[in-house]
Amino acid sequence: MNQKELSYIRFSFVISTFICLIKFAAWLFTHSLVVLSDALESIINVAGAAFAWYSISLSSKPRDTDHPYGHGKIEFFSIGFEGAMILIAGIGILIQAGSFYFRPVQVHDLGIGLWLTLGTGAINFLLGAFLVRKGKQSGSLTLQGNGKHILSDAYTSIGVVTALLLILTTGYTWIDPIASAVAAFIIIYTGYRLIRKAIRGLMDETDSAVVEELIDILKKNRKEDWIDVHNLRVQRFGNYYHIDCHVTLPYYYKLEQVHELITEMDHQLNAQFEKGSIEFFIHTDPCLPISCSHCLLTQCTVRQKPFQQRIEWTRENLLPNQKHQFVA
Predict the structure, then answer these.
(1) Residue ranges of the alpha helices (H) in the chain?
(2) Are 192 and 218 in a shared domain?
(3) Potential cystine with 311: which of 18, 282, 285, 294 (Cβ 3.0-4.6 Å)?
(4) Does the pLDDT at position 18 exceed 80?
């Protein structure tokens, strides 16, 4: 992990703190619930950026005896924490909106609040888009999660500006709590999505996009000696991927040949995989007579059955822990 990611998240923390102060100033001017909802979400931006800062610092530490796969899993805790904070903020905003009907608050100076919200929303949009782009380039879930949260804050600001304009032009103050409630539901949904993503990562749920990319690389570089690949499993630890699989090779190959083939497979995957670094653990299986019908090795001198058909590699036959078989 390079220092650029840390500098990006530090930048996010500083800007988020500045924007949070401006939004609370806008609320003090207006006493508007919808402006308050925008300000409360900004507190989560600051807290999220601070936790993301810690997350990226920790994930950059090298592997050790206590953490043989590194510290990259902290990224899932980071986006889960941020999602939980967003969820809590959304519920709080919803409660505030409901309380308006029991304790109405008089709004004022909406013009000032409008311009302050518009300016902070524009800054958030630029910052969020920047962090998401950099996160995708570096493969950092933490940067992407923080950027998406800030983008959701920018979209919320659009709703706030719209609500303030409606109140200014119509004079209907009941728009304020309704707009605040709509913003709360959007915020709650954003929090739910981040928490769901964190749980999927911590539970090592299969990432279809990663699996498909790995399969494509294997198919493009397929050697006739690679009779089949199965029991393919992928775990993510930050920008680092741990991959297990079984490879069926001719049973009569010497250990040196097996080592060369597996090393070549490792090199091909690491050279062409674009989402991060790979640590490959490969278990080799000897071929069986059932392998002959789909074995591509034309120079095999011990073939017991004639070749019938090439079996194409797909996620359906590479993920299960079962040698490939040709079914007539």
Answers:
(1) 3-30, 33-59, 74-99, 110-138, 141-170, 175-202, 208-220, 255-272, 315-318
(2) no
(3) 294
(4) yes
Does a structural domain hold residue 136? yes
Q: What whole-number distance in Å separates Cα of residue 278 and Cα of residue 180?
A: 46
pLDDT digits (tens, 9 = 90+) for 191-238: 888 888 788 777 666 678 888 888 899 999 999 989 999 999 888 776
d(CA 328, CA 317): 16
Taking the CA atoms of 231, 236, 239 and 242 in sequence, report the sign of the dihedral they define: negative
Burial of 233 from C-beta contacts in 10 A (0-12 / 13-18 / 19+): middle
The answer to the question of residue 247 being in a domain is yes
Note whether 187 and 243 are same-domain residues: no
Could you give the CA distance from residue 203 to residue 59 in angstroms, rounded to a whole number?
Answer: 18
Whole-number pLDDT of residue 249: 93
Identity (one letter) of the amino acid at 68? P
- Give the per-residue SS3 of 106-164: CCCCHHHHHHHHHHHHHHHHHHHHHHHHHHHHHCCHHHHHHHHHHHHHHHHHHHHHHHH
For 182-206, give one letter per residue: b (16+ CB within 10 A) or e: bbbebbbebbebbbebbeebeeeee
The number of folded domains in the chain is 2
* CATH number assigned to the domain comprising residue 217: 3.30.70.1350
Whether residue 56 is predicted with pLDDT greater than 50 in this model: the reply is yes
Nearest to 276 by CA among 136, 100, 115: 136
